[in-house]
Amino acid sequence: MYIYDQVDQRLVDERVRQFRDQTQRFLAGTLPEDDFRPLRLRNGLYIQRHAPMLRIAIPYGLLASRQLRALAHITRTYDRGTGHFSTRQNLQLNWPKLEDVPEILAELATVQMHAIQTSGNCVRNITSDHFAGIAPDEIVDPLVWCEIVRQWSTFHPEFSYLPRKFKIAIAGAADDRTAIQLHDVGLQAVRDEAGQVGFRVLVGGGMGRTPMLGSVIREFLPWQHLLTYLEAILRVYNRYGRRDNLWKARIKILVKARTPAGFRDEVEAEWTHVKDGPATLTSAEVGRVSSRFTRPAYEKLDRLSTAYVLALGRDKRFAAWVNRNVHPHKVPGYAAVTLSLKRTGVPPGDATAEQMDAIAELADRFSFGELRVTHEQNLLLPDVRQSDLYTVWHEARKLDLATANVGMITNIIACPGGDFCSLANAKSIPVAEAIQRRFDDLDYVYDIGELDLNISGCMNSCGHHHIGHIGILGVDKQGAEFYQISIGGAQGNDASLGKVLGPSVSQDEVPDVVEKLIEVYLGRRDSDVERFIDVVRRIGTEPFKEHVYGTHQTSKARARQLATA
Amino acid sequence: MALIKHRKLAPDSWQLLEPDADGTLRSVPAEGDVIVPFSVWETQRAELIARSGQLGVWLAGNEDPVRIAGDLQHFVLVAVKFPALPDGRGYSIGRLLRERYRWDGELRAIGDIQRDQLYYLARCGFDAYVLRAGENIESALAAFDDFSEAYQAAVDRPVPLFRRREAAASS
């Protein structure tokens, strides 16, 4: 955990005071609704379908048990007892009262939390790898850099009214688990030949209406220059990003218009002015921030616990859970555990206040009081002793948090959708549930193997449908809710954007379409090692399309191909 | 439309020359202190320099401050227009004028200036603000103290917090 110092705390307290004043002025009628909107938004407060929605920041997904308890208390006191963990590692409450929000923020501040810049056209919560600091394939621990960028971006006077929202992800492992190519800025921490830390800098990735993968504009940025380089990128964007059209205002549109090379040249030209200036980082500062992170006091353990190995052999259901929900750890004898928030019948990412309290208890008992929020909308106990896994599994089952489906089709990523969100075209939650019910046989789910299924209720893509192996997007068709299905998207090092399969379908038809896609996959895979995404990449989308829509939907090109075959 | 200058309510001797709703621009008054649009400065440079009365120029968000960087000696005041709260280009222009082009005269924020922008405007080098009609002056004057510290370097604190800390620790 990062522990606040006096200044961190003071700024958060002052933010509470500022927002309390803004809210009072709004409620008193001296701050008009139109002017309050951008102010409340940069504090994570939306006015939604039924009530305001408050998005609470969980910087880079790191959460202490006492913070989760505070979130449980807030969820119980000011909401209706359920919180929603989002793909950006934040927590959303769907029923707070606007006039209570200053009080909620004051309570958050007591546990070193806030809602700063969780929305609005500013630098948002910095996201990272949920295995940061514990992953065996880690090259650089990204958390210190996340915190440095968090501080730099907090209340940045120049970059608080950008053309559009701005999302930064920082990764530090060989395997990318942060969707780094789909952020406005993606920073891949690497080491040069001398072992010095630096960053591979990507810009212009993003989802939304015009999904794009980011472009590398610098292969190696020495760490000292991290903030000045970000300043150069943001300044070019702030000055030249489009402000005339909401849909063309993200940095990706500017990068595309200027070409990645052209944009890079502009950034580098701007950088020459600020490079080596006072914002250049020092090793003292990196050391200071690093020293404010608490680190678990790991015990010296055997690489394999005998009790654990015996339990694996004895209990097949435990073994299945371990296979899906337990992850390797860099420290011998330890493992990371996903507590699944993807039980059928529960909206993906939702946790009740009671579950939050119980999870905090598990974290205290088994994981040094620390937790992570994953971008797949689950919670993670990062530092569990192998010998405790069997007990943790039992406890998690009691809490309905042991669905053994990480990486499987039923581990659906979904936004809150039309049930809550006023931006949505269509509902997400019932669609997720219908698919989970269709695939309720775990053996069948395991046979299908790794498959990411992501659902967004609208083009804002909060459910990351573009990078789902199967992506489902809610669309509005003459006032009715329809769903556009795409396949071939992927996160990770070989990220790709899904391709739309064909005409959108009704809500009832979605599970049938998914099942048909699975039928094609199972019929065409070489072996069970070949994943759904691999098959899509090998054979293309056409066979899937034909099976879903029938031959009458076959493209002209394919028809010609078939005719000449 | 109140003017706040150096964190105090101040009298305003300046006339702001702006296009009307239909885009037409009045001619520059023969006398008095006037803030002209950049386009007028560009086209009537010699006349403006020869004119009596003080001269200021204002930039829109899409006008690059480098275009007046060599002319700053002719101005007593530079203004930057913020057409609406969400348009944040002017913050970059302010910093560039102060930090890169070394403008040390009055830097005035004009347009739709609200209480809740003032803290950031001050950090980006603005020292004068023409508040939009209806803003509560007392509340606006308090806005400069919304935050008592800042992480980043900007015009008001040219050295970021971490370097100030390091300097304090080593002294």
Key features of this structure:
heterodimer, A: 565 residues, alpha+beta, 21 strands, B: 171 residues, alpha/beta, 8-stranded mixed sheet, 27% helix
Structure in words:
The complex is a heterodimer of chains A (565) and B (171). Chain A contains 19 helices and 21 strands. Chain A is an alpha+beta fold. Chain A is globular and about 60 Å long. With 171 residues, chain B is an alpha/beta fold. Helix content of chain B is 27%, strand content 22%. Chain B has helices at 38-43, 45-50, 89-100, 118-123, 137-142, 161-170; strands at residues 3-5, 8-10, 14-16, 33-37, 55-59, 77-82, 106-113, 128-131. Classes of the chains: A alpha+beta (565), B alpha/beta (171). Chain A binds chain B through residues 7, 10-11, 14-15, 17-18, 21-22, 25, 30, 35, 38-39, 121, 151-152, 154-162, 235, 238-239, 243, 273, 277-279, 281-282, 284-285, 288, and chain B through 61, 85-89, 91-93, 95, 100, 114, 116, 119-121, 123-124, 136, 139, 146-154, 158-163, 165-166.
Order of helices and strands of chain B: EEEEHHEEHEHEHH
Number of DSSP-assigned strands of chain A: 21
Query: Which chain pair shows the most residues in contact?
Result: A-B, 39 and 37 residues
Give the count of helical stretches of chain B.
6
- Approximate strand percentage of chain B: 15-25%
- In DSSP terms (H or I, runs of 4 or more residues), the helix count of chain A works out at 19
Globular, elongated, flat, extended or rod-shaped: what is the shape of chain B? globular
Q: Secondary-structure map with pairings?
A:
The complex is a heterodimer of chains A (565) and B (171).
Chain A: H1 6-28, H2 33-41, E1 45-47, E2 52-56, E3 62-64, H3 65-78, E4 82-85, E5 91-93, H4 101-109, E6 127-128, H5 143-153, E7 168-171, E8 185-191, E9 197-203, E10 215-222, H6 226-240, H7 251-258, H8 260-274, H9 283-291, H10 306-314, H11 316-325, E11 326-328, E12 334-339, E13 350-352, H12 353-366, E14 370-373, E15 379-385, H13 389-398, E16 413-414, H14 429-438, H15 442-448, E17 453-456, E18 470-477, E19 480-487, E20 499-500, E21 505-506, H16 510-524, H17 532-539, H18 542-549, H19 556-564
Parallel strand pairs in A: 6-7, 7-8, 16-17, 17-18
Antiparallel strand pairs in A: 1-2, 2-5, 3-14, 4-5, 4-13, 8-9, 9-10, 11-12, 12-15, 14-15, 18-19, 19-20, 19-21
Helix pairs in contact in A: 1-2, 1-4, 3-12, 6-8, 7-8, 10-11, 14-16, 16-18
Chain B: E1 3-5, E2 8-10, E3 14-16, E4 33-37, H1 38-43, H2 45-50, E5 55-59, E6 77-82, H3 89-100, E7 106-113, H4 118-123, E8 128-131, H5 137-142, H6 161-170
Parallel strand pairs in B: 3-4, 4-5, 5-6, 6-7, 7-8
Antiparallel strand pairs in B: 1-2, 1-8
